[in-house]
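Quick one, tokens below:
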């Protein structure tokens, strides 16, 4: 029985994928009490992402390849379908999130049985940073519009689903694998994150937040989420909340 599957959706991340995998594997090797696996899902990259992941050469790491770019949500779904772990962590292929925070997320599962764990950048900024940015829950390099979008989605989730989370846009989430036993997803983009959040409500699975660290990158550095993804997320939450 595998305890933990780390799913890494990746699209054109040749600059960061090797560094990211090194960080993930180092944490998992350090916590050998966890039987783990890492599944990289290359989402039709046009660069060397898949080749670098394939050549990484660690027994915990395997690679799945999409024939073409289908969207982050589709890559996440492919990884979840192949996962063998009792818990699944979604780990972006960039280095915005710190794999060293994974053990903190796992610890939550031991204290709240059957929960999902969201790594909150907002709570993390308040815990690790001083000054105005810390109080506002904003990391250096993180834009005000992103923080506002996060707050709007948090309000919508509270309004329609009575979910109280500080950072619905976080890319660091741990789920019980049982959540996906009969899952029939309807999205393929970044909004899949919110589709899963809504499914947690439907399955009466509690969400626990833990503070995490965050090193945001710019669009010039490869950041892909944008305003259209925010609009899709709003539409999904409102539509499902009214149905």
């Amino acid at each position: 029985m595998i305890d933990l599957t780390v799913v890494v959706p990746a699209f054109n991340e040749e600059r960061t994928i090797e560094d990211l995998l090194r960080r993930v594997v180092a944490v998992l090797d350090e916590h050998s009490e966890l039987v783990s696996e890492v599944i990289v899902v290359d989402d039709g990259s046009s660069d060397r992402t898949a080749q670098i992941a394939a050549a990484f050469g660690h027994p915990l790491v395997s690679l799945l390849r999409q024939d073409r770019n289908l969207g982050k949500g589709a890559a996440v779904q492919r990884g979840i379908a192949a996962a063998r772990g009792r818990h699944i962590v979604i780990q972006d292929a960039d280095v915005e999130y710190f794999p060293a925070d994974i053990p903190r997320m796992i610890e939550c599962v031991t204290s709240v049985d059957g929960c999902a764990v969201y790594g909150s950048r907002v709570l993390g900024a308040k815990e690790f940073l001083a000054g105005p940015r810390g109080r506002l829950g904003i990391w250096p390099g993180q834009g005000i519009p992103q923080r506002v979008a996060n707050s709007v989605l948090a309000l919508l989730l509270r309004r329609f689903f009575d979910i109280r989370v500080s950072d619905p846009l976080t890319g660091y989430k741990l789920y019980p694998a049982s959540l996906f036993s009969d899952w029939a997803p309807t999205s393929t983009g970044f909004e899949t994150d919110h589709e899963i959040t809504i499914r947690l409500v439907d399955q009466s699975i509690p969400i626990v937040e833990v503070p995490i660290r965050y090193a945001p990158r710019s669009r010039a550095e490869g950041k892909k989420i944008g305003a259209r993804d925010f609009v899709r997320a709003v539409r999904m939450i409102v539509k499902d909340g009214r149905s």
